[in-house]
# Entry
Amino acid sequence: MAEIHAAIGKPILLGEFSFIAWDSNLPNGRGARSCTWKAKPPKAPNCSYIRTTQNERSDGFTQFVTTLAAAPFAVGYHWWQWADEPSQGRWPDGECSNYGLVHISDDVYGVITEAMSSTNAKLDAVHNMSLAI
# Structure
């Protein structure tokens, strides 16, 4: 993103990112970070970017947005999706991944929503420090 900022000279707003995990009991078989393997790690080595647990998913979020906030050219971000996609796939493209903050059964993923709340409360200070440098 630093290279993009240097090339365009404009602030960057990061849109549509997320982390997914196997313990959502969703297939994670179609979508941006999907895995065509039916087996879960370690039998699916090409799927290492899919987190094993919601705790790991939350850690990924915290690390990612804290790193983003430390960039002086970053002005914000947008988490991809409020609710998970149906396990049988959404219409019209069949995406079926754990992108949401709410499971398809309407249960909130407390671990990640709590991580988002506590991390977001600290991001202004992280970003302001990057501007002071």
Summary: The CA atoms of residues 48 and 70 lie 26 Å apart. The chain has a mean pLDDT of 90.
